[in-house]
Design goal:
Elements: E1 2-6, H1 16-25, E2 29-35, E3 51-53, H2 59-66, E4 71-75, E5 92-96, H3 103-110, E6 115-118, E7 135-137, E8 156-159, H4 166-178, H5 192-198, E9 199-204, H6 213-220, E10 224-228, H7 234-237, E11 245-247, H8 250-262, H9 264-281, H10 284-297, H11 310-323, H12 327-340, H13 345-363
Parallel strand pairs: 1-2, 1-4, 2-3, 4-5, 5-6, 6-7, 8-9, 9-10, 10-11
């Protein structure tokens, strides 16, 4: 396929960079795009921004530039959703991750796309505007050429990589008092495999019951995964006691860490089985093959935004720009509607919301 891929590329956050690399490895022609904006609060720069456009760029302009497009694929968060995607002559799809954080915003986002691929199984039924066969559970998976066992000495008893909130802070303090724990800081993507390759045990505490990156990345790097139990799909993808170990509370967590550090053979067997299972069934290559074949099998233009009136489409974009604090795009939308004789007063209110949100973020 010739894929127009939209993702945030100017920071190290997000998995769009991995999707980009793997799609090309699978033989697809990838045209990466992004919005010409950055987050001044985010210092985790990783690479130069890919081809960047004003947020209000139209899908027609992009087609004139790139020619044939077989699929528009958007990887959350941010990125670029061209204006007029509702009239695209090709299928559109999105990959949505953090539905456990702000589900209503993700439901609104999904309205722009024909196919919706969700990392979180438990929220699939909340996306009711699409017809059957167009909302899919596609769990996260990692690029196994990046997240792999680096065959390092496992000199860390326990590792955790992620945001440290109050609940996690107390847990990590307990672990750090008893065992050798990795430094708690922000890790760039390329640093994570080294941390997990040095760890005997990687601890995972899901937020909001999510099935997160840590599960797959820890397993693929050959550490034993010790994860808090949650009915989020991990129990169907993996078998507890075979591929990973589970715990319910801090008491059981400490008991399990103690036990598995004292029983090397059992720990190593579980870690090896988990890594084999990821390599066999949960690579990003396989996930993206599934995504592409799913869209190709059902290319119908069924995105909810395709069915709306021009005013409905304007409101959808206005809400999107307001959520993203995209003042310039909000004003461009308002002016375009005014020139074309479409209802524009409601868009003025949404522009105000975009401005207020940007102001809030600037002073936060």
């Amino acid at each position: 396929m010739r894929i127009l891929l939209s993702y945030v590329s100017e920071t190290d956050l997000g998995e769009g960079q991995h999707v980009h690399r793997v799609l090309e490895r699978l033989g697809h022609e990838v045209c990466p795009i992004n919005a010409a904006r950055t987050n001044p609060k985010d210092g985790h720069a990783s690479r130069k921004t890919v081809e960047a456009f004003p947020e209000f760029v139209s899908i027609e302009e992009l087609q004139q530039l790139y020619g044939r497009i077989d699929l528009f694929l958007y990887v959350e968060p941010f990125g670029l959703i061209p204006f007029g995607i509702n009239a695209a002559s090709f299928p559109t799809a999105c990959i949505i991750g953090d539905t456990h954080r702000d589900l209503p915003a993700r439901i609104t986002l999904a309205r722009f796309f024909d196919h919706v691929f969700l990392y979180q199984r438990n929220h699939r039924d909340a996306f009711t505007e699409h017809p059957a066969g167009h909302v899919h559970w596609l769990p996260y998976a990692c690029d196994l050429t990046v997240f792999r066992d680096l065959n390092m000495a496992r000199d860390l008893d326990v590792a955790f990589v992620g945001k440290v909130d109050s609940a996690r802070s107390a847990m990590l303090e307990q672990l750090g008092r008893r065992w050798r724990l990795n430094e708690q800081r922000y890790y760039l993507q390329h640093e994570i495999p080294e941390v997990y390759s040095r760890a005997k045990i990687v601890v995972n505490v899901p937020v909001g019951g999510d099935l997160n990156f840590r599960v797959f990345e820890a397993l693929s790097c050959g550490a034993m995964l010790l994860t808090q139990r949650a009915p989020n799909g991990q129990e169907t993808l993996f078998q507890e006691g075979v591929h990973y170990a589970g715990f319910d509370d801090d008491r059981e967590l400490i008991e399990k860490v103690t036990y598995y550090l004292e029983h090397d053979e059992e720990r190593c067997a579980i870690a090896a089985a988990g890594r084999r299972e990821v390599e066999a069934r949960h690579s990003l290559d396989d996930r993206l093959k599934t995504l592409v074949s799913t869209v190709a099998a059902r290319p119908e233009p069924v995105a909810p935004v395709r069915r709306g009136s021009s005013a409905d489409v304007d409101r959808a974009y206005g809400n999107l720009y307001a959520a993203w604090a995209s003042v310039e795009a909000s004003l461009a939308l308002l002016q375009d509607a005014k020139r074309a004789g479409r209802p524009w007063i409601p868009l003025g209110m949404l522009s105000g919301k975009a401005f207020a949100r940007r102001l809030y973020r600037a002073v936060r």
